């Protein structure tokens, strides 16, 4: 099996608190990997370490054969990121934001025009919405635009932090469908979400983080097998995994 | 070969990214609200600052009659210097104020406008006790009172300078008292014309621009959460800094021009029937100074604003979002405040408190250059400005990736 992400003893502390503790993460290429954990487990710090935005205190990170710790510049622009909170220029229109993110990634608008129209239609973003300032859009519309700004970059590896948060039922469903389509095309997706329907439908692999430790990583079925009383109950498996003691606790 | 192609591609990608970032930053600068603050603010402020007093005063010409009887003291005739300097401030083409020299005191008393009498002992008393000026203001309007206060300031300045620059005769050859520092006399008349308006301009524009800088700076990027995206996608993080610097320069140039246009427009409205007053704005007689001197004045304001932008950026990059939003405008305003309140007392002041103030450097530099004093001091200010620019860019580049600044409130 080939891996998109390999970390070895990845460790990061903030003052007294060890946010990420000797994490050995393995994300197979072309998979949807759900990184789960209770609040403050270290998921966001792990994502920032993978992006090269934070320097680890200790350990190695390899993404698509790039050593992120030794060559942080090399990883820049190679990962598409959807942050937990919609990040866009509020004074610019969604169309200006999209054009900017394309230009920043050296992608010509005309090359992705059809794809963009397809995503916009699918997520019900009308032409008039595209011309309003981003700040005037509803939370759901902002989230949908941010999602499109992430996937339109056509990167091989995507980090999606709560992709359906704030979306209505219809848009949430289409976002999940799009994520599955991307995985079918061979993209690797690291997903962080607290929405159980997202995880049930999307996650192929699961990683459980607790107090900075990676306590589990394997196929979703293995998680259910290990932690749930019945094979149907994925939610129960996650809750039990969150509550399970860390080795040495 | 392959390696060089790869390097070239990387360079071209960096350039592409830089262009995209700059386009975005400039586009944000020209958004309605921000553009209104940065470009509209100085224009409106100066326009109304000049227009409003005219609503309460007449537009008739004020005649300033001067009778100088001063006989001088220790080879100094302060009265003559005052008359000379007044004639520089109120040029012969000025339709607003005309300066007329008269040869008797009774003409002053009979004036229907403004009168200034410099008594024969003025110089003597300036060196020994308190000299007196006799001022007549028959109009008692806001406009005439403003003129009187300007005249008083000019007289005060000339007198202070004359005393500060007197030569103390040597009593013994063993010990020589040092002469006072470089004073007004060592600088040209042009420098004295420029000094007050330039100091005021630097202070006001920095105060106005400091809050606007945070609208186009990194603090706002952090607030909008776009900073993380920018850092993740931008290969060379220095591009982010340089783009903000260029945007800051554009904003500075725009604000400065807007300031001048505001005064110019107000002057045109006030003096609709005059064809000369557009060049006499805010005591800066553009025709008298000449193109290059005016250009130097504008350039020094732009340099001061540029340094203020860099300071804001360095603070934004090195402090957390909330701290930078609160502190960065205060730092610039604080420096400009100390600069202005030191030079307002004496525009040619030269003290430690001023030398360590970055906004003093372009100000002093221009005063020296227009006086054609290309001394070592000029070189020092140029080096200081360049060094500070490099240091601030370095601090911003180093600070931009600091995790606490990115993720802590």
Keywords:
heterodimer; A: 249 residues; alpha/beta; Rossmann fold; 2 domains; 6-stranded mixed beta sheet; 5-stranded antiparallel beta sheet; 10 helices; globular; B: 409 residues; 4-stranded mixed beta sheet; two-stranded antiparallel sheet; 17 helices; 67% helix; transmembrane helix (chain B); ABC transporter permease (chain B)
Quaternary organisation of the protein chains: heterodimer
Instruction: Round the Cα radius of gyration of chain A to an integer and report it.
Output: 18 Å
Give the fraction of residues assigned to helices of chain B. 55-70%
The CATH topology annotation of the largest domain in chain A reads as Rossmann fold
Order of secondary-structure elements of chain B: HHEHEHEHEHHHHHEEHHHHHHH
InterPro entries (chain B): ABC2_TM (IPR013525)
Subcellular location (chain B): Membrane
GO cellular component, one term (chain B): membrane
Transmembrane segments (chain B): 34-56, 198-219, 240-270, 290-315, 327-356, 376-396
Explain this structure:
The complex is a heterodimer of chains A (249) and B (409). With 249 residues, chain A is of the alpha/beta class. Chain A has two domains: 1-78 and 156-164 and 183-249, Rossmann fold (3-Layer(aba) Sandwich), CATH 3.40.50.300; 85-154, no CATH class. Chain A is built from ten helices and eleven strands. Chain A has helices at 43-50, 72-75, 94-104, 109-122, 127-130, 139-151, 169-184, 196-202, 220-227, 234-243, and strands at 3-14, 17-23, 26-28, 32-36, 58-63, 66-67, 79-82, 157-161, 188-192, 205-210, 213-219. In chain A, strands 7-8-9-4-10-11 form a six-stranded mixed beta sheet, sandwiched between helices. In chain A, strands 1, 2, 3, 5 and 6 form a five-stranded antiparallel beta sheet that branches. In chain A, a hairpin with a 2-residue loop joins strand 5 and strand 6 (66-67). The longest helix of chain A has 16 residues, at 169-184. The mean pLDDT of chain A is 88. With 409 residues, chain B is of the alpha/beta class. Chain B has two domains: 18-53 and 189-407, no CATH class; 59-140. Helix content of chain B is 67%, strand content 6%. Chain B contains 17 helices and six strands. Chain B has helices at 2-29, 32-55, 78-89, 105-109, 122-128, 142-164, 189-216, 218-223, 226-233, 238-270, 286-289, 291-318, 321-343, 352-355, 360-370, 376-399, 403-407, and strands spanning 62-68, 97-101, 114-118, 134-137, 280-281, 284-285. In chain B, helix 2 runs parallel beside helix 10. The two termini of chain B are 47 Å apart. The A-B interface holds A 48, 51-55, 73, 76-77, 79, 81, 83, 85-92, 96, 100-101, 103-106 and B 13, 16-17, 19-21, 23-24, 27-28, 31, 33-34, 224-226, 228-236, 401, 403, 406-407. Chain A: Residues 5-236 form the ABC transporter domain. Chain A: Belongs to the ABC transporter superfamily.
């Amino acid at each position: 099996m080939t891996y998109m992400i390999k970390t070895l003893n990845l460790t990061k502390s903030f003052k007294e608190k060890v946010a990420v503790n000797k994490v050995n993460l393995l994300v197979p290429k072309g998979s949807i990997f759900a990184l789960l954990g209770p609040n403050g487990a270290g998921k966001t710090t792990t994502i920032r370490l993978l992006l090269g935005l934070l320097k680890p205190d200790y350990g190695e990170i390899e993404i698509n054969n790039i050593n992120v710790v030794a060559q942080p510049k090399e990883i820049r622009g190679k990962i598409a990121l959807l942050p937990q909170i919609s990040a866009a220029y509020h004074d610019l229109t969604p169309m200006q934001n999209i054009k900017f993110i394309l230009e920043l990634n050296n992608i010509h608008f005309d090359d992705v025009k059809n794809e963009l129209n397809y995503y916009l239609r699918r997520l019900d973003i009308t032409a008039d919405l595209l011309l309003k300032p981003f700040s005037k859009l509803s939370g759901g519309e902002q989230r949908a635009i941010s999602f499109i700004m992430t996937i339109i970059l056509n990167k091989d590896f995507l980090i999606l932090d709560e992709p359906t948060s704030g979306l209505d039922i219809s848009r949430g469903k289409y976002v999940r469908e799009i994520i599955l389509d991307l995985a079918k095309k061979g993209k690797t997706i690291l997903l962080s979400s607290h929405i159980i329907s997202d995880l049930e439908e999307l996650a192929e692999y699961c990683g459980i983080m607790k107090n900075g430790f990676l306590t589990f990583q394997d196929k979703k079925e293995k998680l259910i097998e290990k932690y749930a009383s019945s094979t149907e109950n994925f939610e129960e498996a996650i809750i039990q995994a969150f509550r399970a003691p860390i080795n040495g606790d | 070969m392959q390696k060089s192609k790869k390097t070239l591609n990387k360079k071209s990608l960096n350039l592409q990214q830089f262009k995209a970032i700059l386009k975005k930053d400039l586009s944000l600068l020209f958004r309605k609200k921000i553009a209104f603050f940065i470009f509209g603010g100085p224009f409106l402020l100066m326009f109304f600052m000049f227009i409003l007093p005219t609503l309460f005063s007449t537009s008739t010409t004020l005649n300033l009659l001067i009778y100088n009887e001063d006989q001088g003291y220790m080879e100094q005739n302060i009265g003559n210097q005052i008359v000379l300097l007044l004639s520089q401030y109120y040029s012969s083409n000025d339709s607003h104020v005309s300066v007329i020299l008269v040869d008797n005191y009774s003409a002053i008393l009979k004036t229907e406008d403004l009168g200034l009498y410099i008594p024969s002992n003025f110089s003597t008393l300036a060196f020994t006790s308190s000299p007196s000026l006799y001022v007549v203001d028959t109009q008692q309007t806001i406009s005439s009172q403003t003129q009187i206060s300007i005249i008083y300031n000019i007289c005060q300045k000339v007198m202070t300078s004359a005393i500060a620059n007197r030569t103390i005769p040597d009593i013994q050859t063993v010990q020589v008292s040092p002469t006072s520092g470089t004073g007004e006399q060592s600088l040209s008349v042009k420098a004295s014309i420029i000094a007050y308006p330039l100091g005021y301009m630097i202070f006001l524009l920095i105060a106005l621009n400091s809050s606007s800088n945070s609208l186009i700076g990194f603090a706002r990027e952090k607030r909008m959460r776009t900073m993380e995206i920018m850092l993740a996608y931008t290969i060379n993080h220095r591009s982010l800094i340089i783009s903000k610097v260029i945007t800051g320069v554009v904003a500075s140039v725009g604000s400065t021009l807007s300031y001048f246009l505001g005064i110019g427009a107000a002057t045109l409205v006030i003096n609709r029937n005059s064809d000369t007053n557009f060049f006499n704005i805010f005591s800066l007689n553009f025709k008298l100074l000449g193109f290059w001197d005016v250009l130097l004045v504008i350039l020094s304001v732009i340099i001061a604003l540029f340094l203020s932008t860099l300071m804001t950026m360095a603070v934004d990059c090195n402090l957390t979002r909330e701290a930078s939003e609160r502190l960065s405008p205060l730092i610039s305003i604080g420096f400009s405040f100390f600069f202005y309140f030191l030079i307002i007392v004496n525009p040619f002041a030269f003290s430690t408190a001023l030398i360590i103030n970055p906004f003093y450097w372009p100000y002093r530099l221009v005063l020296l250059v227009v006086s054609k004093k290309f001394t070592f001091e000029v070189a020092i200010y140029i080096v200081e400005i360049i060094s500070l620019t490099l240091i601030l860019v370095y601090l911003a580049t180093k600070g931009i990736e600091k995790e606490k600044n990115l993720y802590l409130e």
